[in-house]
Amino acid sequence: MQNDASTAQQRHQQNARIAAGHDQLQKVAGYMAKHMIGGLPRNYELVHEALNGHHPALARGLAALGQRPSQHDLDQLGLKHRLLGHCGIAEERLQADATGLLDKLGEHVSLGILHKQTFARALETILKSIREDEGRGVGDLIAELDFLNGATSDLLHSETELGLKLKTGLQQIETAKRAVETAKAATEKDRLTGLPNRLAFIKRLEDLYGHDVPPTGHALLLVDIDDFRSINHQYGEEAGNRLLQRLATIFRKTIKKNDVVARIDGDDFAFLFSDVAAEDAHAIADRLHAAVENNLVFATEHGSTHGGLGLSIGFALTHDADEPMQLLAHAEAALNTARANPRAPIAGYPPERSRPAGRHVA
Questions:
Q1: Cis peptide leading into 56, omega within 30 of 0?
Q2: Whole-prediction pTM
Q3: Window from 11-25, 269-283, 332-346 with minimum mean pLDDT
């Protein structure tokens, strides 16, 4: 009967999440239709974050654009708040600009080479004529020398201009390169907590599996705040945001230098630990759970404090998965098990790993 109750609870939670997601999509689509916003993927992201992303500054910025905002204004707002889709567009534009600069520099260099070749041919022609006609007068020689002098001055001037253009162009390319790196970094960072986001974390997993030999000795942990929506509803979104920021700080201080923590969803965090044996994973989860219990106190919008934050943690090990998405799926399955049983908020994959075999901490 207990298993039936757990299954029913999981089904109820899943249906609630689906219904909430459907309501959010309808809300976003309605806002875009009302304000005549183009149906681009990055616009959906912007409006979704403004309406449902607990981002008051973005919401105010979008409201200030008014009816039928231009795509340029929407893109500028998305860039200002470092939204993933808009940062990706910026990166593409910056790369295109850098390519254009390289093309222009190539044209300048080609023109400089042409000037040198023209000068060299003129010099060869004059020398040849002098050798073939030794009886030429002084006046003719002076005229040819004057021509060479003018050609040399033109070449030196052209060389100076080319040097300046190359210097300026290289500086512009370096600036564009830094801008591309900044835009790329923005696409992989969670703007609220400063942690890596889901995209960055998935890339890290893919890099981990990007070798001929499957990785071993790594543990993936997923952490979810229990009923975070009710916390936002009861204490306000600002309090919820402060909680997430404080939680990120605790997690960042709890892990080692070579380990990774990322915010991969609204109230979901992911960890990747190295040099971890099977018996250590549960102990690490215990440590994270205790760190939150001992250190997290957050202020509500009314100035009061609240404690007793509930966490669910699921973990999986790399030697049980042949590719990154399988590892993530294993950890998500363990997390769902932990969510379904508040008395045992830490679960592993496979289920027999849900109980610690030791108390070693990586």
A1: no
A2: 0.56
A3: 11-25
Q: Which of 71-75, 79-83, 104-108 has the lowest mean pLDDT?
A: 79-83
359 found inside a domain: no
Ranges 75-84, 109-118, 137-146, 247-256: which has the least confidence: 137-146
Regarding whether 6 and 124 lie in a shared domain, the answer is: no
> Structural domain of residue 134, as residue ranges?
86-187
Domain count within the chain: 3
Q: Are 243 and 298 in contact (CB under 8 A)?
A: yes
15 and 141 share a domain? no
Residue 362 lies in a domain: no
Same domain, 179 and 218: no
Choosing from 52, 81, 110, the residue where a domain stops is: 81
Would the pLDDT of 92 be above 50? yes
pLDDT in tens, 192-214: 899 999 888 988 998 999 888 87
Say if 309 falls within a structural domain: yes
Please indicate, yes or no, whether residues 67 and 105 belong to a single structural domain of this protein: no
105, 234: one domain: no
> Which residue among 146, 167, 187 closes a domain?
187
